[in-house]
Design goal:
- The chain is mostly helical.
- Helix content is about 75%, strand content about 0%.
- It has 11 helices and no strands.
- The protein has helices at about 1-30, 40-50, 55-65, 70-75, 90-115, 120-130, 135-145, 145-160, 165-170, 185-195, 195-230.
């Protein structure tokens, strides 16, 4: 169980900041009114979220396969040789986290984009008149007004990370040597394979409590923000 908790925390650290930052950066780019084909990019970036995570895991398993994978074929063409990352204890967890990032960043991207479009353009114009550059506008205009959206996406991504199962079950089954065995995988193994229903139920309650705590943090943050704005 201790290994499953550590693996879940590792997965959360790998998945959450990566997915959130990728979504935020892409939202900032697509929010530019001078960007051509904005509608096309919005639709394309959101499409991975529509795909089932299990289906995406199957596709990525073949993509990174050392024998027939297209990614490894390209890397070999550049003189880079890598083995089967799903059988490497140090690379298996980053690999399954990468699949989750690819699958979910589109959802966070849409939320960030909606938050950015709610920021009045007059504030950016006033900042430009005052001589503020891109970084200063982002720091003093975008970030403060996007803080509620950022907090929501961050907590939502952390909750999703705690529930990681689909792609891990398909790609590694918790291996190699238990290095991708998360809490949900442990619940599945204990409850459905070992038939240790009491232990699986206890782990489920622990996961539920962790999820509720994150939700409480989110509500507290939003409550303070509303008081500050009032």
């Amino acid at each position: 169980v201790q290994d499953a908790v550590v693996n879940t925390l590792q997965y959360t650290v790998l998945f959450t900041p990566t997915a959130v930052l990728v979504a935020l950066l892409l939202a900032l780019v697509v929010n530019n009114p001078r960007l051509p084909w904005r509608s096309f990019f919005r639709t394309t970036l959101f499409l991975p979220f529509v795909v089932s995570l299990a289906v995406a895991a199957f596709a990525w398993s073949y993509l990174i396969d050392p024998q027939v994978g297209l990614l490894n074929y390209w890397l070999r063409g550049m003189g880079v040789q890598i083995g089967n990352v799903l059988e490497d204890p140090s690379l298996a967890m980053p690999a399954v986290a990468l699949v989750a990032v690819w699958k979910n960043f589109g959802f966070y991207f849409v939320i960030f984009l909606a938050g950015l479009q709610d920021i009045p353009a007059s504030l950016y114009e006033a900042a430009r008149v005052d001589g503020a550059g891109v970084l200063h506008r982002f720091r003093h205009v975008t970030l403060p007004l996007l803080s509620n959206t950022f907090a929501f996406v961050l907590v939502f991504a952390m909750i999703a990370a705690l529930q990681a199962f689909d792609q891990i079950y398909v790609m590694t089954g918790g291996g190699p040597y238990g290095h991708t065995q998360t809490i949900v995988m442990e619940i599945y193994e204990s409850g459905f394979r070992k038939l240790e229903l009491g232990f699986a139920s206890a782990l489920s309650y622990v996961l539920l409590i962790a999820t509720l705590l994150l939700s409480v943090v989110q509500f507290v943050f939003f409550g303070r923000r509303e008081e500050d704005l009032a």
